[in-house]
Amino acid sequence: MKDTVIINGAAGGIGKAIVESLIANYHLILLVRTKASAVELEDYLTKKLFFRDYMIFVLDSGNKDDFERVLNDLKQKNISNIKGIVNTVGFVKIGSLLDVDESDWLSAFNICFMGVVRTIKYFSQLMTSGSIVLINGILSQHPKPNPIIASSMTGAVSNFAKAMAIEMIDRNIRVNVVNPSLTDTPLIKKIASQLTHDDDSYQGVIKSMESSAPMGRFIKPKEIADLVKFLIASSSEYINNISLNIDGGVQK
What we know:
The chain is α/β, with parallel strands linked by helices. It is 46% helix and 17% strand.
């Protein structure tokens, strides 16, 4: 019988890559924010993958009630002994301190930070051992004033993960963090669109961002997914409370 892994943010670019990496070896519980995302993900997986060992639930990381509902659904379906949790949910708002509104801060806190807190708080109740992997960001290690929100939220998640790794070890649950820099997903296009107002400028920003990487390209989502696969597996069972940067070596 396959072990079960929960992936929150399964419909995103990194989330889909993680699904593809894990689905042959695990039963997957896939969490997506909207019904439209659930339909899109189902269609994508049906066309892309041979394996069908997954269940999709709609869950908004900013809504505590959604976590309670999905947890109860899993219990009613007798899904327990979860061996892994992966969180990929993030929030993007470009701007320095004076550029962003208080509502942006509150939304980011609710989704990015409290979303992680809720993911671990609720779904770790179904774990007796295993691994939790949080996809965070390189700004947690090397913060910048723009984007100030992402720098702040990823830093908060990083410290929360360290505390959880210490707390969870008594339950034989490991907690590790992966910090990618710019990754080739739809999210990078959203970031670029916030910085430009026309197509020519947009393409220029994309090329500039990509050429600034030490290897001259964005990270491939599969490169992140392969690392997550290792961290979830029992072969990494002595790796705990670490923060791994995937940035091509640009950060020192």
